[in-house]
Design a protein that fits this description.
Penicillin Amidohydrolase, domain 1, 7-stranded antiparallel β-sheet, 23 helices, Penicillin amidase (Acylase) alpha subunit, N-terminal domain, 28 strands, globular, alpha+beta, S45
Length: about 800
């Protein structure tokens, strides 16, 4: 028995133990699962490439050649687009079939069919907020696109060609572990990325929490704790940008907000979902070429959310990453342009309180009239259980998510969700056109079709242009419209118009020679439209811009270094204040040692340092204690963000929120900082004495790339990486740079580098599973093979020919 097979057997044994301890619902028939001829043994792979050199595929019109590089990226060379995407579907299914199935079940609310009752409410939630419906609507839009529809059809045919030739022995491991079979793929499922990314990137809001806070604190205190904009910000669009259009007029009506309080709100997207991107013009690069960098900061998973490709025909030559199941490259480059995206926080969701006529909920009140509501019956099959029936009610605003059957509150709450993602979209059409764009003009035409989720599109070209665009469908709102719960019966709260594309936020070739975005405020107050969001980032964007203002004669390694920058801007602005408040006269030796560690720190969150751990624990305790009053209320309220908290601590030494509820004394800011410092020291001592921790930063934060089923044996923890949330290298415990890309737009041939924390294969039985994680953590990149010399490159480690059957 070879060493690898032994290790793999041990891993599966542990995983089975995990499943039997209720980590996941249901286990397969053990004899079948443990069979050396059909079970998990068949998923073990030897090192190296184990693909067939020649394959036959039904439906191809000509041979297709696939070159594999050391990252195992397939470089697919086909004579036409149909063959190209048919092979693409086949190869994606080979590497990521179970993940594709998992994603489709997530979007369509069907996880309970294989995971059991524990995911029922999750499935119900995803259908209630409309992920299934928006995917169906997206396909309906694509049906009229004569170029994109054949791409989706060919891709699905390729996926199904792979599924059709599988035996049980060849099923991906997770199918065996959960005891179910792969389903046929379809163009509908290939639209799943839009719903997934919209759910992750544009559903975040705090309307109900804001309403609660407004009712509890009053307007003046609310504005102090939750300001729309604070401080000297560095927005995405440079401040020197001038707006020459006449904006659409909007007048705020004199109407009150319904201050109905809500005890519990639905789960929101993770607040650390973010990203950064930046581009420099030839004036700042040593070569004189444009350079572009992008890293989307998302949940770190195995398999990775991204799959990398190079797709080539006579009229298309594009490389980058996409979500498995989706044939269009979402972040990447071609011979002429490169593009990267970051989330652009713009409030895309509004909530409306609905009044039904009676308990039957067939009619709802609007504009002093009763209108007919639509009822949609949803069926949920549950593994090992009976089918569950749910009724979703739709009004003209959107689905009624909160009602007597879901987050019922007092049994009378009915809140309808209005979300831009519910509207018909041509976003995938836009991305398809970007893949083929040859210049800035082509790119801009594609931007017209992009409707969300809102993204900061960074652009670079071989012609020397850099630009940033924030396209999408945005309602024209009066100030604070949609910031709180609104009365669904009053037409005055409705959206009346949308911002014209010609009024979109963009900047091109600024005099300063660079552009960047990192989820911060998109623009200053001179832009005439309201651009509220509850979750703008205050640190990463300023750090990137600080560096780009200074750097010159840049080379690609400078772009990589900035992507991996570990400077803690937040600590640099808060720690001096915190240390200044300390009463050092009462320090013992241990307190002095920690003080010395913090005082000598240069604010870089490097993996081996102890200071970041000490600071972060102290800050977390301080932040929790400041807002302990909020934790005690019986309604849902967000804590004020970190930037606001630090600003209040600096400005008000007698801050009322500094008082600790658990004590009889009246604490000041100074008291609170001294008390929390001692609590942090005590906690750190316990960690070291009882848990034998060395307090190095990477150990303390424990960045983990976790399997989608949360199976520990298929996850990688204690990744030796620096950074953190609010740091450019935003690697926190479970979130971080999910793909890093740097591109140099050399007119003689595009050059690019990339890496992500995972692997092309999703098979835990492969020695390549997660093989890029260590390289990603240390800030190393792979050169991305691209260009006419690929056929003879020594980076090609395997060549495969796929022929018509």
């Amino acid at each position: 028995m070879k060493t690898f097979r032994f290790i793999f057997f041990l891993t599966i044994t542990i995983a089975l133990g995990v499943s039997l301890n209720t980590r996941i619902a249901g286990v397969p028939p053990l004899g079948k699962f443990l069979s050396p001829f059909h079970g998990f043994w068949q998923n073990a792979e030897e090192a190296g490439i184990n693909y067939e050199e020649t394959l036959d595929m039904e439906g191809l019109t000509a041979p297709v050649t696939v070159y594999y590089d050391e990252m195992r990226i397939p470089h697919i060379y086909a004579e036409n687009e149909t063959d190209l995407h048919r092979v693409q579907g086949y190869l994606t299914a080979r590497d990521r079939l179970w993940q594709m199935d998992f994603f489709s079940r997530l979007v369509f609310g069907r996880l309970s069919e294989v995971l059991g009752e524990r995911t029922l409410n999750f499935d119900r939630f995803n259908r209630r907020i409309g992920l299934k419906k928006m995917t169906e609507d997206l396909l309906e839009t694509i049906q009229s696109d004569p170029d994109l529809l054949p791409v989706l059809n060919a891709y699905s045919d390729g996926v199904n060609a792979y599924i059709d030739q599988l035996t049980y022995a060849q099923y991906p491991l997770e199918f065996k572990l959960l005891n179910y079979e792969p389903e046929a793929w379809s163009p509908l499922k290939s639209c799943l990325a839009y719903a997934m990314l919209s759910n992750t990137l544009s559903r975040g809001e705090s309307d109900l929490e804001n309403t609660n806070a407004l009712a509890l604190f009053g307007k003046d205190m609310f504005n102090l704790l939750y300001p729309d904009q604070l401080g000297n910000l560095d927005p995405v669009i440079p401040k020197e940008k001038k707006w020459s259009f006449d904006p659409l007029k909007v007048i705020k009506p004199n109407i009150p907000y319904p201050l109905t309080t809500t005890k519990k709100t639905i789960e929101k997207p993770h607040p650390l979902n973010g990203s950064n991107n930046f581009a420099v013009s030839g004036s700042k690069s040593k070569s004189g070429h444009v350079m572009l960098a992008n890293e989307p900061d998302l949940e770190l998973t195995l398999p990775s959310i991204w799959y990398a490709y190079h797709l080539h025909t006579d009229d298309k030559n594009v490389m980058g990453v996409t979500v498995p199941g989706t044939p269009v490259i979402l972040i990447g480059f071609n011979d002429s342009i490169s593009w990267g995206v970051t989330n652009s926080p713009r409030d895309q969701v509004d909530w409306y309180s609905i009044q039904f006529r009676d308990e039957n909920r067939s009619e709802y009140l609007y504009n002093n009239q009763w209108f007919k509501a639509e009822k949609q019956i949803e069926l949920f099959k549950i593994a090992g259980g009976a089918t569950y029936t749910d009724t979703i009610i739709y009004v003209h605003h959107g689905p009624v998510v909160y009602d007597r059957n879901f987050f019922p509150q007092n049994g009378k709450t009915n809140y309808a969700m209005k979300w831009i993602a519910h509207f018909p979209s041509t976003t995938i059409n836009a991305m398809y056109e970007i893949n083929k764009a040859k210049n800035y003009e082509d790119f801009t035409k594609a931007m017209v079709k992009f409707q969300g989720p809102p993204q900061n599109f960074m652009f670079g070209s071989t012609k020397g242009d850099i630009a940033v665009w924030l396209p999408g469908k945005f309602p024209v709102k009066w100030r604070e419209q949609g910031k709180y719960l609104m009365d669904g019966s009053n037409p005055a709260y409705e959206w009346k118009a949308y911002i014209p594309f010609e009024h979109s936020l963009f900047a091109k070739n600024p005099e300063r020679g660079f552009l960047s975005s990192a989820n911060q405020h998109p623009v200053d107050t001179l832009y005439p439209y309201y651009t509220y969001d509850h979750n703008y980032e205050y640190y990463r964007g300023r750090r990137i811009n600080d560096r780009l203002r200074i750097l010159k004669d840049m080379i690609p390694k400078d772009m990589m270094k900035l992507q991996n920058d570990n400077f803690n801007y937040m600590a640099s602005e808060s720690l001096p204040m915190m240390l200044n408040y300390l009463d050092t006269g009462s320090f013992d030796t241990q307190a002095w040692n920690y003080h010395k560690t913090l005082s000598e720190w240069d604010y870089f969150n490097e993996p081996s340092l102890k200071a970041p751990s000490v600071y972060q624990l102290w800050w977390d305790i301080l932040y929790q204690q400041i807002w302990d009053e909020i934790d005690t209320v019986s309604i849902a309220i967000d804590r004020p963000n970190k930037y606001v908290t630090i600003d209040l601590l600096k400005r008000d030494s007698s801050l009322v929120f500094a008082d600790i509820l658990a004590t009889s004394a009246r604490e000041t800011t100074r008291d609170l900082i001294n008390l929390t410092y001692q609590k942090a020291i005590d906690s750190l001592d316990v960690r070291m004495s009882q848990n034998n921790e060395d307090l190095s930063w990477f150990t303390f934060k424990n960045t983990t790339v976790r399997h989608l089923l949360r199976l520990d044996p298929f996850s990688v923890d204690q990744v030796r990486v620096g950074g953190y949330a609010s740091i450019v290298n935003a690697a926190s415990k479970g979130h971080g740079p999910s793909w890093r890309m740097v591109v140099e737009m050399d007119p003689a041939g595009t050059k690019a580098w990339g890496v992500y924390p995972g692997s092309q294969t999703g098979n835990p039985g492969s020695p390549l599973y997660g093989h890029m994680i260590s390289r990603w953590a240390s800030g190393e990149y792979y050169p991305l093979l691209f260009g006419p010399e690929i056929k003879n490159s020594d980076q090609v480690i395997f060549t495969q020919t796929i022929q018509p059957q």
